[in-house]
Amino acid sequence: MSNKITKEAVLAALGKVQEPELHQDLVTLNMIRNLEIEGDKVSFTVMLTTPACPLRGRIDKEVREAVMAVDGVKTVEVKMDSDVPNDGRMRGLVNMPIRNAIAIGSGKGGVGKSTISVNIAVALAQSGARVGLMDADIYGPNTPTMLGVDKLPAPNGPKLIPAEAYGIKMVSMGLLVKPGQPLIWRGPMLNSAIRQFLSDVEWGELDYLIIDLPPGTGDAALSLAQALPLSGAVIVTLPQMVSLEDASRGLNMFKQLEVPILGVVENMSYLDLPDGTRMDLFGSGGGEAMAKASNETFLGQIPIDQNVRIGGDTGKPIVVSYPDSAVAKAIQEIAQKIAAKASVAAMTANNALPINITE
Ligand code: ADP
């Protein structure tokens, strides 16, 4: 007959399991909840820092193994839940329950920045997160087309109501100006427009606000990055040299503004041909080399697929229309990495471990 299992023994075992990205154990991080012991059965909840946790499977396996090794345990029941940490820097913005703001930037236009912003936002929502998309690309605000949205809902108060599509909330400069109307943005005007996009929009509670920034390192991108306490920035590039040089400039701009770089994404990396061969249209490996040279994380490659463009033109993002395609899989993986890195950035910025749960 084995001894009675104690909570202390289970917690001691779980205290040896590390959160792979935060490099601390799950007990210290306050990630173990609702621990219950009934006879030889132990059950508990693991509170992840994002529903899009890329290491969910590994954590699940390791906690089961650790608890099974406790004397007398026959069954382990693990539930996974999540509570996205609140990046303290966002709190400076009054009354905005937005936990993390993540900017997607690029050195120049046409590299797929908006496509990636839209698909990452939808992929995060598919994993269960509360997501908003702010299209601040004043030069080419095309996320409405990509999401099949043509107007914002009628407001019922002083605030703008974001449109909803595929589980995300969105606002876009493109929905606020009439088609064909010229837009002349100067620094202060742009700054106030961005502040309005934050404070005059009924966002509600968001785990992630994805911001599609204008391309380049011009005034617009700069004032945006200054107007917002960003949790981090993602840089999108193509594999070829000229695009990489532009992307490096973008990356350096964020660094100078002390915005953490969450990583580099290489888009249109290759084309898989029907005969099974792979074609590198724009060279290969450039994005990864650039990330390495700047000591930043390479988040992954996205292949070329005409369904990406078709989806963009018809308002159905590829993670919705072809969720099992290579492109969608690559984007889902990149979204998970971004979410995980944002959690680390938020928790480092907060400097307040263990996780503070807001009820
Ligand atoms: P940006 O926001 O950087 O200006 P867009 O996201 O608008 O770029 O993309 C430019 C064009 O390239 C769009 O027509 C889009 O559908 C297409 N596109 C982007 N990524 C891919 C891809 N991986 N495969 C095929 N077409 C793509």
The main pleated sheet reads as: 8 strands, mixed
The CATH class of the largest domain is: Alpha Beta
- The radius of gyration is 22 Å
3D shape: globular
Strand arrangement within the widest β-sheet reads 8-9-7-10-6-11-12-15
Q: What structural class do you assign from the helix and strand content?
A: alpha/beta
Number of strands: 15
- Beta percentage is 15-25%
Give the integer mean of the pLDDT values.
Answer: 87
Number of domains: 2
What does this structure look like?
The protein is α/β, with parallel strands linked by helices and 359 residues long. It folds into two domains: 7-82, Fe-S cluster assembly (FSCA) (GMP Synthetase, Chain A, domain 3, 2-Layer Sandwich); 101-349, Rossmann fold (3-Layer(aba) Sandwich), CATH 3.40.50.300. The protein contains twelve helices and 15 strands. The chain has helices at residues 7-14, 56-68, 113-126, 143-147, 173-176, 187-199, 219-227, 241-256, 286-293, 306-314, 318-321, 326-350, and strands at residues 18-19, 24-25, 32-38, 41-48, 75-82, 101-106, 131-135, 163-165, 168-172, 208-212, 232-237, 261-267, 271-272, 278-279, 298-302. The strands form four sheets. It has an eight-stranded mixed beta sheet with strand order 8-9-7-10-6-11-12-15, sandwiched between helices. Strands 3-4-5 form a three-stranded mixed beta sheet, with helices on one face. Strands 1-2 form a two-stranded antiparallel sheet. Strand 13 and strand 14 (278-279) form a beta hairpin. The longest helix is centred in the C-terminal third of the chain and has 25 residues, at 326-350. The radius of gyration is 22 Å and the shape is globular. Residues 351-359 have low confidence and may be disordered.
